[in-house]
Each structure stands twice: as C-alpha cells, then as structure tokens.
Amino acid sequence: MDFNIDLSEKISLKYPNEVPKGYDVSQIEYTYDFIYLVLERGANIDGALRGVANEYGLSEISLREYLIENKYLLNNANPDEISRQLKSYNTKSLKKILKEHGLKTSGKREKIEQRIFENNLLGSDYYLSSKSKVFYKNKKRRIGIFEEYLFEYYYFCEFNDYYMNNFQKKEDNIPVEFIKQYINKAVEDEDHRMFALNNQVMVEVFYKKENYKAMLEYVLKNFCINMNPVWKVDDLSDHGGIAQETYENLLFLKQELGKNRIISAYFAVWDSFNFEKIIVSKYTGYRCLKDLLNYKDYQRIVDDLQTKFYANDDLKIKKFTQKTLFDF
After folding, report:
1. Is 49 helix (H, G, I), strand (E, B) or coil?
2. What are the structural domain ranges in the chain?
3. CB within 8 A of 23, min separation 6: which ones?
4. Which of helix, strand or coil describes residue 280?
5. Angle between helical axes of 192-208 and 173-189 (0-180°, round to 10)
6. What are phi and psi of 229, to 5 degrees?
7. Strand-pair partners of 154
8. Which of 191, 153, 159 is nearest to 174 (CA)?
9. Are 3 and 198 in contact (CB under 8 A)?
10. pLDDT of the residue at 319
11. DSSP 8-state secondary structure symbol assigned to residue 126
C-alpha cells in the first residue's frame, strides 16, 4: 500500500471533497500582514484593511467580515476585550493618547482607561483581539511545528485553527493531538486508507522525536487493520495486505526495542480495536508478525495472505459470520 500522497492532495477535515483555491496560504498571509500593519507599523484598523485589501486584490468589506468572523477583530461593543487591550499599554502611553486629543491626563489608572474608552481614542470601532496577538507573536513556533511534522500531508489553515485554540499545550503534544483528529475521523467514517495514512504520519512524527515506544503503537495499529481490513469488505480482492512501510518499521523497531516487546504490544493493540468482524484471526496475525520479525520472505507472506484470505470469497464469508476458535 502506498502511503505517499501528492502535495496537491493534502488531507482536509474542513473540506473533505473540494478544497477552496488558495486555501493553504492566502488567508494566513493576509491575516498576518493585517496584524503586522496594526501592531508593528502603527496603522489604524481602517488603514490596515485598505492596504491589505489592495495588496491582495480583496474587497475591504469581505476582508473585514473574515477577520471578524474568525475573531481577529472585535467590535467596540465588547468591553472585556477593550479592557484587555488597554491593559497592554503602560500608564505613560495612555496619558500620551489623552494629551494628543486635548483631554485631561490626571487621575488614577482606572479613570484614564475609562476616559479613553468613552472617547473611542484607539482610532476605530474595531480592535485587534488577543487571538490576533497570539497569531502574530507565535508565528515562528507555529510554522516551525507545521513544517517539521505536518506540511506534507495537511493544510496549514486547518493546523493554524487548531494551534490558535491549543497554543498553550506543550509543543511536543501539538502535532500529535492534531493528527489524532484525523485518525478519529477515519475511524468514525470507517475509512481504511485515511486511517492507515494518518497512522503512518504519526509513526513519522514519533520517529523524528526518537520516541520508539510510542511509534510502535501506531505501527502495530496499521499492521492490525491491514491484517484484518474489516472496513474494506467490498474490495478485499484489491487489498495489498501488510504495507511495505509497516514491514520496514517493524524491522527497525525490532532493533530498537526487541522482538518480545513488539509481540507483547501486538496483543494489546489488536484487542484495542474490539473487532466485531473477523477476516484474519488474531492468532493468524500473531504468526504472521513472528514470521516478519524472523526475516521470512515478505512478499511470500503477503501473497499467502492474499490467496488464503483476501481473494477467497468463501473463507471471507465464513470469517465474517463467526469468530475463529483460534482467535483468543
């Protein structure tokens, strides 16, 4: 089974059928440019909207609506957000704003903030949200995680949405939890290909982290679901059996962890599926796993599985209607 997919066929949860043109980069680029103009260049909201809309050939209205819908901009009517924004200024800066508008600068900090709020002195009916500032300040970390682990398979827009809601998590957990969304969706949809592909991506993540114990779980998940492909009932004759990547990963992990640990983990992983239907029994899977780890001919093992199970309609029907006695 080929787990490698063309970069034009990345996986989208939000748009499973047809991804909008330019979905991977454009919204991220102009959102970043807009926030940069406001935070770093001192532009007011309307000026920044105008500049970014002209740069990207957008409508100012549609750009404003996008930023509001995604909570990068908040309306003046949200006093909690305005209060948070005011607190990002020191008192000296707030007094300077008042002075520039010919208003009194005396009084306690609370009175100064109230005076600025009541006179709408920050220059717009809309304000950058705290989400905007997180988006901007965490750009390097966010892009670094995506490029290190995810860019080959997923859209940055969807990772960015996930990151913005989970940026406080430990960096090591962010790509793992992100991929789990796709694995869970594949289980829900009973989508064999997407399940195997996303598990393989997880294998690559843990390989890069040199976390071979965690890597083993996902290698074995692919081994189990490919041994017993209950989500592919209608096209079993086309099932490739054990993926080449899975075979190679098993041999690698045998060197790192030892054969006994792999076999012990196999039973736990198989049972975690709680297979309600059986094509290939757990015992058969165990014998196949032992053969692979003992360097028996990979292609012969795959061919035997094809002959005995995936291309044998009579046996397939029998296995679906009752569990084998050897499935302990």
Report:
1. helix
2. 77-123, 169-321
3. 12, 15, 155, 157
4. coil
5. 170
6. -80, 70
7. 11
8. 159
9. no
10. 52
11. E
Half-sphere exposure of 246 (CA within 13 A, CB side): 28
Per-residue model confidence as pLDDT tens digits over 98-127: 887 788 888 888 888 888 776 666 655 678
**Parts of the chain with a pLDDT under 70:** 1-8, 25-26, 76-82, 85, 118-125, 312-328
State the pLDDT at residue 325. Answer: 39
Cβ neighbors of 39 (< 8 A, separation 6 or more) are: 128, 133, 136
Say what the pLDDT of residue 201 is: 95
Q: Which residue do the tokens 């962890």 mark?
A: 257
**How distant, in Å, are the alpha carbons of 209, 211, 326 from that of 215?**
9, 6, 28
Q: What is the pLDDT of residue 79?
A: 61
Q: From CA 115, how far away is CA 109, in angstroms rounded?
A: 10
pTM: 0.70
**Digit-coded pLDDT (tens) for 237-273:** 788 889 999 999 999 999 999 999 999 999 999 999 8
Cβ neighbors of 75 (< 8 A, separation 6 or more) are 68, 125, 126
Asked whether the beta carbons of 301 and 288 are under 8 A apart, the reply is yes
CA distances from 268 to 92, 170, 173, 284, 292 (A): 63, 28, 23, 15, 19
Per-residue pLDDT, 207? 96
C-beta neighbour count of 101 within 10 angstroms: 10
Q: Are 174 and 166 in contact (CB under 8 A)?
A: yes
